[in-house]
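Handout, section 4.2: multi-component inputs.
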Amino acid sequence: MSLEVAIAKRLGAFALEAEFATGGRVTALFGRSGSGKTSVLNAIAGLMRPERGRIAIDGETLFDAATGIDVPVHRRRLGYVFQEGRLLPHFTVRQNLLYGRRFGRRGAQARLDDVVTLLGLGDALARHPQDLSGGEKQRVAIGRALLADPRLLLMDEPLASLDTERKGEILYYVERLRDETGIPIVYVSHSIDEVVRIADTVVLLSEGRVLDAGPMREAMARMELRPFLGRFEGGAVLEARVAEQDLENGLTRLEFAGGSLYAPDVDALIGEQVRVRVRARDVSLATVRPEAISVLNVLPGTIKALGESIGASVDVQIDVAGTVLLARITRKSVAALSLAPGRPVYALVKAVAIDRHSVGWA
Amino acid sequence: MLSAAELEILGLSLKVAFWSMLASLPVALGLAMLLARAEFPGKTLLDGVIHLPLVLPPVVIGYLLLVGFGRSGPIGAFLEDQLGIVFAFRWTGAALAAAVMGLPLAVRAMRQAIEAVDRRLEAAAATLGAGPLAVFATVTLPLIAPGVLNGMLLAFARSLGEFGATITFVSNIPGETQTLPLAIYGLTQVPGGDAQALRLCVLSIVLSLAALIGSELLLRRARRRTQSA
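Output:
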């Protein structure tokens, strides 16, 4: 799948001017609320008409202001999972799921039984949307979009209206979707945890513009040096392999390009690939290897770059044998240790700082 | 219980009300959609014109219908020549008068229902492959069904009570245009008609109550089915 977007539109005082291309399996449109993520999604779906620009999917033009092409929403064959579900209240779950079929949207791959099994909706089929829980509604919305045979699935913060437990549940289903259906997904989110867990490509939006776009690991590492994310959001993403499960201590040893990383109890089999986000504020730096210290992960590397200082703190990029880690430390420490690019350092990461939400399946 | 003459009056009243309701349905729905969804110059004026029957003396409407739809009126003559449809002094004219008088009530009820529809649901349907007509048929219409029903029942009830416009337009012809209110009026004009008039008054009250209660019950059922999720 390839998706090309280059659009511009004024919405009151807000100017949307977004351009990116992606071929990812799961592309995250990531940014704060009000950054234009949903507007981009609506333009792709045809629910919002840009003033200028072009949108194409696999070479087929959906919109082109220059030539006047504007394929109507119902002919774009894109699935859209909305933030609030938007199930049709006068239909049962089954009728909602099969709604797209009334219009000939019937795919070879998506069969009702499979989707019902995939999303665990067997018990809900005869019920009406008002009798469903929030998580069930969202699963029906996902199933409904899937069964309409989309060539691309657009998801607009599908977890936003759910509580933490339900979030995990839906995220699990989105992961299965990604791994089992092969339908590419464009996923809008302002939560870095979600993005890290499911996306392989990231488009970073801010105030209607694309700040960065590309493979997630690289984009994440680059974006951390910007004073863009919330103060406690920043962090690097490592691709790692489960090397050892230490059941006695409840620890998992992960191997990545730069060495080993201990994390508490990662729920995966030995040999599985996982993705770990290490938050910048959980990483400390030392210029000599510390002894007699409780921190399990001591990773040798060199300073690659220093970010802008924000208040008291500075984000530092550390190259650990080719993998980039981020550390958020104080300006005072940068000066005291005379940290500068090229300087060898040890990055210290507490194992317990890596929690369940920081690990995803690659 | 009812005499043959009374049954005839009742039957005619119901026939006129039924057809006026049915004929005004597409017109009212179309106007309601237009007012609720479209922006165009003269919208306020159109809204005002539709509401005129609510505030004008009914005799004005009746007289205008007579001028326009009478056999020598421009529209009436055209319809008779081209389609063979005659309104003047026929029960169809009574239905037309009742439809015009009931139209603002029907449009108001339907417009409110249309404005209450969550348009995001329509957008969701479109992403699933539904074109504009299919969206209207499978999303909008089911969601506004209680409002449409309400509007139709209001128009029906209004038709049952229509008097001024009807008597001006199609006169008071027993068996043709003499609906309940007209029959009661006729009886009050002749000596000794009081008892008969009272009987018809009771009939009128029973009929109206039945229509109101019936509509309330239907509405409750319809609302339960289309409650928003």
